[in-house]
Write a structure and sequence with these properties.
Length: about 475
């Protein structure tokens, strides 16, 4: 057997010829070639017609050839079916890094063309850098992690710029009802008119409001949300219209901007608009009609340019009939109405929703969340008074209680699915001892959820059941989501 080093270097001399000896380049190649040849798991060369002209010992062993010289003169494709050396000879372009399958082995290879003095292609050389992917695993997983981080950072940045967390793609669903919602949302995005979103709790009103903003012409302007129900009535006016300096005696002598000013140029999302006291309804109507506001304690009006998206889970028409909502404000807000169907009316979306929600739940956790068809069917047996928020919580609970890495099946779902509105607490798996604060927080979250389910998402009634004020309930809900 030849000495492989001199064999390879000798082959290079043959390739380049004495007259090509041109100082450094030649020396470098001569110095590098044996190193590559030895460090790699194999080396091979072909001529202009992609026929093998040389192959070293380690590559013949790797390929399982009895006698390397048998391979000489044969088309390289015959000996290595998945090689791309003919392509390199054809195009003159190196393939610096590639993974090649050979008899169920994955080889990491590099392929380089080489030229004669006139710049014509003479052939190509290839090295097998690694004969399995193991050494590359840390590199590949690091790359994947960096790539994920980058994608997450880009997404977060884009949302920060928009001021929104959601875009239209986040409203998951392909049922006719969901598509109709999206169609209207796109229509709304293309125009400047006020939009009224109507839907039960947890149907995605917030998601949709942000999505409309983020595909509208105001996308690069602020999106400001204000939840009317979460703010005590006596503070609402200041929250909406701001406070002029010196309006109050005492500490707060500075100007405080209201939501209208903050949203100037962009979108103002009036959440739970049905919870607005009548006195403020009149002021809101005036602001919308005139396009100007009067901060508290100021006698000057300020022009504002906002696009209003309002949302409510209440029946505004019934409220008008009983005199608790102004009809003129209703018509002002309800130029384009988007009813968002409850989940029970779009069960066809359960599957895709589960996929999207599980992915979201597992994001950033070292968890894999999957559900099978039987699991999805099990979810279909329930009527979802808490809609998608409740679905998310059920999936989260099922995942917590199932074995790590398992797929959620019907059993896993039935174990956590509320039946007839009451949770099967008795059959919950024994839980490990946790810090008291966490146990209390969990119990509180569960009580709130149960109250919301019992009242079909009516927060005022839920707050009453729980014996807390509506704004405290909102505070707690905000912490939970
Ligand atoms: N179509 C949807 N696709 C994916 N996720 C959704 C969808 N709709 C809602 N969600 C998710 O469900 C949860 C509740 O959504 P959101 O807060 O928008 O509902 P809401 O109608 O504003 O509820 P509420 O009346 O209680 O304020 C969020 O976690 C949201 O991401
Ligand atoms: Mg909401």
């Amino acid at each position: 057997m030849h000495d492989l080093r001199s064999d390879g270097a000798g082959y290079m001399t043959q390739l380049f010829g004495e007259k090509n000896r041109n100082g450094l380049t030649r020396d470098l190649i001569e110095a590098l070639f044996p190193m590559f040849e030895e460090a790699s798991a194999g080396a091979i060369a072909v001529d202009r017609d992609a026929r093998i002209t040389w192959i070293n010992h380690s590559y013949s062993q790797l390929l399982g050839l009895n006698d390397p010289s048998d391979a000489i003169g044969h088309p390289v494709k015959k000996v290595i079916p998945h090689t791309r050396m003919p392509e390199v000879v054809e195009t003159g372009k190196p393939l610096l890094l590639d993974i090649m399958e050979h008899q169920q082995q994955q080889l990491v290879v590099t392929r380089l063309p080489y030229y004669d003095d006139n710049g014509d292609i003479v052939g190509a050389i290839a090295f097998v850098l690694y004969d399995d992917l193991q050494p590359l695993t840390p590199l590949v997983s690091k790359y994947r992690r960096l790539h994920q981080d980058l994608a997450a950072a880009r997404k977060a940045l884009a949302k920060k710029v928009r001021g929104t967390r959601y875009s239209l793609g986040d409203f998951v669903g392909a049922s006719p009802a969901a598509l109709e919602v999206k169609r209207r949302a796109r229509l709304a995005a293309g125009r400047e008119m006020p939009v009224l979103l109507l839907g039960e709790t947890g149907t995605g009103k917030e998601v949709l409001a942000q999505a409309i903003h983020s595909v509208s012409g105001r996308a690069d302007k602020p999106f400001v949300g204000v939840n009317v129900a979460a703010i005590p009535d006596n503070l609402l006016e200041a929250e909406f219209f701001g406070v002029a300096p010196g309006a109050y005696t005492g500490a707060d002598r500075r100007t405080r901007e209201g939501k209208f000013q903050l949203a100037n140029g962009g979108t103002l999302f009036l959440d739970e608009v049905g919870d607005m006291p009548l006195s403020l309804q009149a002021k809101l109507l005036r602001a919308l009609q005139e396009g100007e506001i009067e901060p508290l304690g100021s006698n000057k009006v300020t022009p504002v340019d906002v696009r209003v998206i309002a949302a409510t889970s209440r029946n505004l028409e019934a409220m008008i009939a009983e005199g608790s909502f102004r009809s003129d404000l209703y018509y002002r807000l309800n130029v384009l109405e988007i009813p968002i169907p409850p989940l029970r009316e779009r069960m066809a979306d359960l599957g895709v929703l589960c996929e999207a929600l599980l992915e979201e739940i597992c994001l950033g956790l070292e968890l894999r969340g999957e559900i099978n068809d039987a699991g999805v069917s099990a979810l279909g047996s329930y009527d979802w008074p808490g809609n998608i928020r409740e679905l998310r919580n059920v999936l989260e609970r099922a995942l917590t209680m199932s074995e790590e890495g398992g797929v959620l099946d019907a059993d896993a779902i039935f174990r956590v699915l509320p039946r007839n509105g009451s949770r099967p607490l008795a059959i919950q798996a024994p839980r490990s001892v946790r810090p008291l604060a966490q146990t209390i927080a969990n119990a509180e979250a569960q009580a709130i959820e149960e109250a919301l389910v019992a009242t079909r998402g009516n927060r005022s009634r839920a707050a009453k059941l729980l014996g807390i004020s509506r704004s405290v309930l909102y505070e707690k809900l905000a912490k939970m989501s």
